[in-house]
Amino acid sequence: MKREDIRNIAIIAHVDHGKTTLVDELLKQSGVFRSNQEVAERVMDSNDIERERGITILSKNTAIFYKDIKINIIDTPGHADFGGEVERVLKMVNGVVLVVDAFEGAMPQTKFVLRKALDLDLPVIVCINKIDRPEARPTEVIDEVLELFMDLDASDEQLDCPFIYASAKSGHAILELDQTPEDMVPLFETIINYIPAPEGDPDADTQVLISTIDYNEYVGRIGVGKVDNGTIKVNQECMLVNAHDPEKQKKVKISKLYEFDGLTKVEVTTATVGSIVAISGIADIHIGDTLCSPENPVAIPFQKISEPTIAMQFMVNDSPLAGQEGKFVTSRHLRERLFRELNTDVSLRVEETDTTESYKVSGRGELHLSVLIENMRREGFEFAVSKAEVLYKKDENGKLLEPMEMAYIDVPEEFAGSVIEKLSSRKGELQGMNVSGGGSTRLEFMIPARGLIGYRGEFMTDTKGNGVINTIFDGYGPYKGEIQYRKQGSLIAYETGESITYGLFNAQERGTLFIGAGEKVYAGMIIGQNGKAEDVEVNVCKRKQLTNTRSSGADESLKLTTPRTLSLEQALEFIDVDELLEITPKNLRIRKKILD
Ligand code: GDP
């Protein structure tokens, strides 16, 4: 049976190219909102951080109606660090809308998601958005997109895709540039005509592959997936099985079943093949589980969840400072919060350490972890984190492997030299260089993830804020050897789980200094001038500065240029601790060493 009443689509877009605005507009025009009601909240990026950083982390769904056809829009994560998510999500849909900014053109992150869509043979609608921008260059951008398709070995059919021009902001789409814009109808029409309806046998044995997990305080875990086969009903008995875990075989009863409608979920009693459903009431439901008829429990294979590549310690901030303002966080709070995150974020790993004061949190890249840190800070959690460390692996011969990233960099020509120099010294290999007409240079580097830790801040300084860097995990490769960081002057020290690590700091900017002596850790700000140790000046560390720097490890490591472990003796060569101690009673706050 063809479900002509349904279309399942995903929208792919580079950050800021207008995906959220477009979905909001489709929702508005599809009549979900009464005409006098504004879209109060932006639909897909409902998380503050996502909004600020312009990325979509967890996939959320929405459904709009056009001519009695339900269009399920499955959100795709906008950042490639969440690559595993993308593939699973795309398995639920029958086609994608690729949104590309009419000025900026195709971007590397778009390429990553698009490649996955093309590999899955999904039809693509190209939507050139922001055509209202005065500097828009839609025709050129179309050529660029077609080039991208060819780069990605798109089939002839895929190359023959429809193009639409839109201004999500003004709420209209057109098929030809000389058309008079009216509304979003051309996009709605293209979606229902070009994207195939899902198909299947409603009478076959039930199979629902759980592709994402939602979490709600009241109902707990909610599995979201497509009915791949048959029909699922309330009160039906199902077998919960998993293709990667043959041991998992559990009989469950479907107590609550929902479909998506606008921004909400509505309860239904039955859903047939092709529908996107949400199921609550099964505590043990996980991504990759299949709900099947008990008499024929066949698990559907799924894309394995991407493994973490980077770890940080999250530590209880037991400093006397922590109690003064903000929320005091006990290890139980921290633990609960971190483990709760695992309900919805499957790429994250949280492990206990030898002490209850500290947890090892691993994720996909620096960005992934820094988003979590920021989220938790906003919720009022006070805690400390160590700097990021990459997770190594060994191959079957015991050779050390490390995570590698592709870095795509666009910089004005005059900065290309310094970027190449810096990244090369961080073991990056230049794999491509392209000078565009506008004086901008595109550089492509393969670089150990380790070499990128802390690089972004430096990059911004080096390119005077004019550079753009995008990175994509490229898999594990042979360990590239130690990175020799050059000494740049003044000193910074920061804590890791077990010890206090001292490192050199690029003294062009301020940084926080931690000096460990015996059981005590002293903290202060240093302001270095001319990058010379003798110019280092120690300032009083206000609580705010201390917590900020210590707790937002990712941000901090963005500023660090030369993390390197020094012994205390070596560290003392750079800074006079006695002098520090002298100002201790009045100015410097003392906190207990985290791990005695
Ligand atoms: P997302 O990151 O892809 O979800 O992008 P958003 O929808 O958040 O849009 C990013 C920015 O582009 C916002 O400031 C929007 O107002 C703006 N924007 C979105 N669509 C358009 C458009 O059609 N024209 C113009 N001029 N700006 C747009």
Task: Furnish the topology, listing elements before pairings.
Blueprint: E1 6-13, H1 19-29, H2 48-53, E2 61-66, E3 69-75, H3 83-90, E4 95-101, H4 108-119, E5 124-129, H5 138-151, H6 156-159, E6 163-167, E7 172-174, H7 185-194, E8 207-216, E9 220-229, E10 231-233, E11 237-242, E12 249-253, E13 256-261, E14 264-268, E15 270-272, E16 276-280, E17 289-292, E18 310-316, H8 331-341, E19 349-352, E20 358-363, H9 365-378, E21 383-385, E22 389-390, E23 393-394, E24 400-412, H10 413-425, E25 429-435, E26 440-448, H11 449-452, H12 455-462, E27 468-478, E28 491-495, E29 500-504, E30 511-517, E31 520-527, E32 537-539, H13 543-551, H14 553-559, H15 568-574, H16 577-582, E33 590-592
The structure holds guanosine-5'-diphosphate.
Put the structure in a nutshell.
The chain is 24% helix and 33% strand. The longest helix has 14 residues, at 138-151.
Describe the structure.
The chain is an alpha+beta fold. The chain has 16 helices and 33 strands. An eight-stranded antiparallel β-sheet has the order 12-11-17-8-9-16-13-14, with helices on one face. A seven-stranded mixed β-sheet has the order 2-3-1-4-5-6-7, with helices on both faces. Strands 18, 19, 20, 21 and 22 form a five-stranded antiparallel β-sheet that branches. The longest helix is centred in the first third of the chain and has 14 residues. The protein starts with 5 loop residues before the first strand and ends with a strand. It catalyses: GTP + H2O = GDP + phosphate + H(+). Belongs to the TRAFAC class translation factor GTPase superfamily. Classic translation factor GTPase family. BipA subfamily. This is Large ribosomal subunit assembly factor BipA. It comes from Anaerobium acetethylicum. InterPro entries: BipA, BipA_C, BipA_GTP-bd_dom, BipA_II, BipA_III, BipA_V, EFG_III/V, EFG_V-like.
